[in-house]
Amino acid sequence: MLSLDEMENLLPEMALVAGIVLAILVPNLGNATLRLPLTRVRIPLFIGGTRFTATSDPRLPARISIVAFSVAFFFSFFGIEGASGEIGGVIEVSSFSRMMSFVFYGALLLAAVATTYRMPARRGARAPRDKDSESRVEALVAALMDNRRQVDFHLLLMMVGLGMSLMAMASNLFFMFVAIELASLAAYVLVAFHKEEAVGGEAGAKYFIVGSVASATGIYGMSLVYLWAGDLDFDALAASWAAMDGLDPFAVIGVGLMLVAFGFKVSAAPFHLAAPDAYAGASSPVAGVLATASKAMGFVALFRVLIEVTMPAEGEALWFCIVAILAVITMTWGNLAALTSENPKRMLAYSSVAHAGYMLAALAAIGSGLGDSATTELVLVAVVFHLTILVLFKLGAFLVLGLLETEGRSHRLEDLHGLARRDPQLAGSMFIFMLALAGVPPLSGFLSKLLMINGIVNISAGTGSTSADAIVPWAETVDPVFWLAIAIVLNSALSLFYYLRLCLVMFFEEPEEAKPLRRARHLRRTILVLAVLTVFFGIGSGAEFLLDLVETAVSAM
Fold first, then answer.
1. In a 10 Å sphere around its CB, with 0-12 CB exposed, 13-18 middle and 19+ buried, how is residue 72 labelled?
2. In-domain check, residue 533
3. pLDDT tens readout for residues 385-418
4. I need a surface site. Which of 34, 111, 197, 385 has the fewest CB within 10 A?
5. Total domain count, the chain
6. Which structural domain range is residue 480 located in?
7. Does residue 541 sit within a domain?
8. What is the pLDDT of residues 492-501, one digit of tens each?
């Protein structure tokens, strides 16, 4: 039985569990009764029968989901400053876990709001009649399908949120993998949810197969780690790693196999191959969740294993070179692939791969062992800050594409032609999102990249001469960690080409269709708020406020 303190620490998760239970029960409430044997007395069951008017509203599951995510988001925010406590031996609530659940719930809340327009529920939908035209029949069937799928979609979305939040709080490796799989299995179904579209089913199948192989690889690695240490608690694993004399093959191979699983979650090359298809085949709100919340989940897992368990007290980590090479390959591969993409969603998918490379470079700098605790914390703050503000402009860009999807568009670059003429507000927001992804000042995307580059340079500081007349000798003596910062700068410059190309077609190409986009008031307001926050958290008091929250979270990790 949970104590009052434990229940208080788990309020966000309890809100989400309550949402899941309500989403299952409330739409099934009806006037069903049960007759007592040998009597005429009937007692109400309330489950089944003819549904009540209030509970038969197809918009109800979305409202339950949005309220549950809003409550969880609210409690997570207020838990960042003072949440702490261990529950059941496998869960540890801290400021860091609450910061990450704040990111997860924020992304999922935005996706739930956007889905009310991408897959709308229509209360007055009816079955087709013989006199209806063929196009009318198709529209009516589509409306009925959307109504029937409301509960399924929002249940899966809440399952994703619950799995992600439990993963962030895990203090045990096995529990962390179970939580990751809870989120992942629901995400696989969400990718293929719109099965009436050919690309959705294909994307879901690819994502499920590759993800299952990656998960199996990671779980096999976990079993090797258990054979080596005899325990799966992170504290016990860290102590065993620190006391390890030499390199135990079970430990090294086990951690390497787990890196494969986590590399898939963060879309690191070469484990990213299913990601572009998944992003292109999923609805835009779901693709936005994969690019933000799912990526953050993968990096939290990397933090747990690489920093909390395998990072030595001093000296270079075993995985430094591997992660550094993966970082450079990932950011370069992602940007080069995005340059040639003609599908906006695939372009943003490859952009997400590149951003994973930037954060892996920062993680590799920590593994170099050159920095002290202050510089290590500086780099971690930069990575967590980037994961947080990525929800604003990466998910914001997907929400713009989601609004285009309501009229059957967003899969071609031509669908964005002339968007500024059709909808100046939407085009202006998309322009801000693209500049933030490219890292243009004074937007929050620039600040997060600047913090990462600054942290990497500080870690590599003092490793060579920087005099103007000795550039070549300096380049030969500087630590390789410094070149990770150079790689981020060069790849950020490269990314400007495809981000600005998308902006170019919005403002200077003729639209294929002149009529304005759908009104979608709540979604439009959400997109506008995200654009404003993208600027707000890049400069002044807004940036200081968010950085203070992130520093509080990182110091508790």
1. buried
2. yes
3. 999 999 999 999 999 998 888 876 657 888 888 8
4. 34
5. 1
6. 315-557
7. yes
8. 999 999 999 9
